[in-house]
């Protein structure tokens, strides 16, 4: 239990999709002056060294962020995300990948707040070290799912919740849905973003069905596949479920996904889409 380390997968195609979506959500939230809370239930270590033994062993970032971070034809909608990546790699060499907490830290304003939780015994100290000088942030070693009950609604009544579990436990699929349902009852106007891997399509279908039957409206599904579904071991695709998405997000992702898919998957395998799972 709790053996998963994101350092093996940092900067891969799933991170590119996840952090593209997250950057667009956070950018949209800043269009209103009122501050908001960013809650990250499974925050990880925060920063990942791409020359580490773990990252080098898989080399997944080479088919992810390495393919897009210096492209001069990248769509303007990717600018907030790519500017953060470049901030952590100012020498022009891709050495570090910023996880979702660091992406949020760079994009949030001085009046916004971050609430970050991580349970892993090795990753939590690294995350705490990254944020110990940031007065906006609280960093806890705690159950991330429980935060949707204890921290919502935020005082500002505005918030973004990212649920990005490791899925090393099969219960993570149902736990993510259950956490959203509990959070939604307390804070129905919040933006909830649930990341999911496609390893077994049937498991994803069960998750989507549970959300469809939850009674929650305005659920957007965004998915990027790098190869067709398979019964073999390994992730073929990943996606984001966004509840109460900013009004432009569907349009933005449908504009971005063809370029992302073509650039990340030169072979043309797989697929990419943004569609309503449950409309208004």
Automatic annotation (TrEMBL):
Gene3D superfamilies referenced in this protein's UniProt entry, alphabetically: Vaccinia Virus protein VP39 (3.40.50.150)
Subunit structure, as described in the record: Monomer.
One record GO biological process: rRNA base methylation
Catalyzed reaction equations: adenosine(2030) in 23S rRNA + S-adenosyl-L-methionine = N(6)-methyladenosine(2030) in 23S rRNA + S-adenosyl-L-homocysteine + H(+)
Active-site feature positions: 164
Gene this protein is translated from: yhiR
Amino-acid positions noted as binding S-adenosyl-L-methionine in the UniProt annotation, renumbered to this chain: 19, 42, 100, 118, 143-144, 164
Role this protein plays: Specifically methylates the adenine in position 2030 of 23S rRNA.
Enzyme class: transferase
Matches recorded under InterPro entries: DNA_methylase_N6_adenine_CS, RlmJ, SAM-dependent_MTases_sf
Catalytic activity, EC: 2.1.1.266
Protein name per its UniProtKB record: Ribosomal RNA large subunit methyltransferase J
Pfam families: RsmJ
Alphabetized UniProt keyword annotations: Methyltransferase, RNA-binding, rRNA processing, S-adenosyl-L-methionine, Transferase
């Amino acid at each position: 239990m709790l053996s998963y380390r994101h350092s093996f997968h940092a900067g891969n195609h799933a991170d590119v999709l996840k952090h593209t979506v997250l950057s667009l959500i956070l950018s949209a939230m800043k269009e209103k002056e009122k501050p908001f809370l960013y809650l990250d239930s499974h925050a990880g270590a925060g920063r990942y060294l791409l020359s580490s033994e773990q990252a080098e062993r898989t080399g997944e970032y080479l088919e992810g962020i390495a393919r897009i971070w210096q492209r001069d034809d990248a769509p303007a909608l990717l600018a907030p995300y790519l500017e953060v990546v470049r901030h952590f790699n100012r020498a022009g060499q891709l050495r570090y990948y910023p996880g979702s907490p660091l992406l949020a830290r760079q994009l949030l304003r001085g009046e916004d707040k971050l609430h970050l939780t991580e349970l892993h015994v090795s990753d939590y100290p690294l995350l705490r070290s990254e944020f110990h000088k940031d007065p906006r942030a609280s960093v806890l070693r705690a159950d991330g799912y429980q935060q949707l009950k204890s921290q919502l609604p935020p005082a500002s009544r505005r918030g973004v919740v990212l649920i990005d579990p490791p899925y090393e436990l099969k219960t993570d699929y149902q736990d993510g849905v259950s956490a959203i349902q509990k959070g939604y009852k307390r804070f129905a106007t919040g933006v909830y973003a649930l990341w999911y891997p496609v390893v077994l399509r049937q498991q994803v279908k069960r998750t989507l069905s549970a959300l469809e039957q939850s009674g929650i409206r305005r659920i957007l599904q965004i998915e990027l596949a790098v190869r067709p579904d398979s019964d073999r071991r390994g992730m073929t695709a990943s996606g984001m479920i966004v509840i109460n998405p900013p009004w432009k997000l569907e349009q933005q992702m449908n504009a971005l996904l063809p370029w992302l898919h073509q650039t990340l998957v030169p072979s043309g395998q797989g697929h990419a889409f943004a569609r309503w799972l449950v409309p208004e």
